[in-house]
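Late entry, written up from scratch paper. The run itself happened at the end of the previous shift, but nothing got recorded in the book at the time, so transcribing now.
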Amino acid sequence: MIDSVANLLFRCSHRRLTRPVTPVSRAGVPHGQTYVVCLDCGKQFSYDLQEMRVGKPLESSQDEGVLHPAMPKPDHKLKYALWASVPLAFLAGAFLRNGKKAKQKPPKEPGSA
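Output as recorded:
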């Protein structure tokens, strides 16, 4: 019930779709129906190549799809390294700014008025 109310209020309009995809075997023989995928929510829809129209939603299964479900997960070390570099960049910028300010102001000579 709550899911259906949320879908009515915040549902995806499915405006951004992939190109039609037809699964084929290694021999080039189609072994499934043609479908498109919404780029915003990931929902799959059947696609009629004769009429060039999007059809009804398809049940998504783990056996079908572009990526195999047993693929290794992405390594997040690079993401963590980038996040750690943000404070270092601010510190480096602060030191460079302070160094430029010190160089711009000439020191006062003793004995000058």
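The chain has a mean pLDDT of 77.
(Scratch paper discarded after transcription.)
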